[in-house]
Amino acid sequence: MPELPEVEVVRRGLAEHVVGRVIESVTVTHPRSVRRHLEGAADLAARMTGLRVAAAQRRGKYLWLTFDDPDVSLVVHLGMSGQMLVQPFDAPVEKHAHILATLDDDTQLRFVDQRTFGGWALAPLVAVDGALLPEPVSHIARDPIDPLFEPESVVAVLRAKQSEIKRLLLDQSVISGIGNIYADESLWRAEIHGNRSAAGLTRPALRRLLAEVGAVMGEALAAGGTSFDALYVNVNGQSGYFERSLAAYGRQDEPCRRCGAPIRRERFMNRSSYSCPRCQPKPRPHPR
Questions:
Q1: Looking at domain 4-137, which of 3.20.20.80, 1.20.5.110, 3.20.190.10, 3.40.50.2300 is its CATH number?
Q2: Whether pTM exceeds 0.85
Q3: I need a surface site. Which of 33, 148, 181, 264 has the fewest CB within 10 A?
Q4: Residue 137 pLDDT > 70, yes or no?
């Protein structure tokens, strides 16, 4: 699933190619792609037609468009394979293009989603901590590249919790934008095992971890994100190349780039975790 860097790459592409454009028509060809819009495909198409795109915005892994109508936003769920492509109006339509929004410059904004886990939905904007957010996104915490992100506040939250630190990194209400890939990469850089209790980590260790989160996100963003297959692309259909720089995620049995020990793969929350057994020792079990 796309994480913060991948979604930010898409947001920047939309800001460049879609903002300022008027939506002339919307066609929905697969009902699953608008299942989160409870009023249905016809309502979404009718309400979007004639709107001018005002901004492309993001918080964490959540993406939305705002319009010249200040009371509505379009929340875009990329899911596992969702793509927001900007194509010439007469370009061949992709096999899995399920929503086509025709713009006033002879282009189309196309939502392509092979696995149909993603979709579009209109939602009202609500005020949260000085920001206007779509209602479904209102519970999401600020992310590490947000100018108003406060590391010390996050450190305080983490220090008060007994949960594993990786579980909390993945909790979008604590810190947003981090998924499995960048959690593993940040923990490797900070030399912390993901099963360590957050409350058991020192404040300097947590500050170091958050700094590494910000660093890895910034590097991934500069590389266009991480693309393991053709499903994640930016609005022009190009893939990111941060996969080449991964030090932990997906590198089972390959040598640690720091110490040479083989990277291990473990099960965590119904997914895989990758870490170095030497640089990131497991926490000791508590005595009974």
A1: 3.20.190.10
A2: yes
A3: 148
A4: yes
Catalytic residue among 2, 5, 134, 144: 2
Which of 240 and 149 is assigned the larger pLDDT? 149
Active site residue 95: no
Token code pair at residue 46:
């009718």
- Tokens coding 78: 């990329």
Of 109, 94, 101, 114, which is closest to residue 32 (Cα–Cα)?
114
Per residue in 34-53, pLDDT tens? 999 999 999 999 999 999 99
Query: Active site residue: 21, 59, 61, 196, which one?
Result: 61
Q: Does residue 166 carry a catalytic annotation?
A: no
Q: Is 255 a catalytic residue?
A: no
Is 61 catalytic? The answer is: yes
Which of these CATH numbers, 2.40.10.10, 3.40.50.150, 1.10.8.50, 3.30.70.1060, describes 151-275? 1.10.8.50
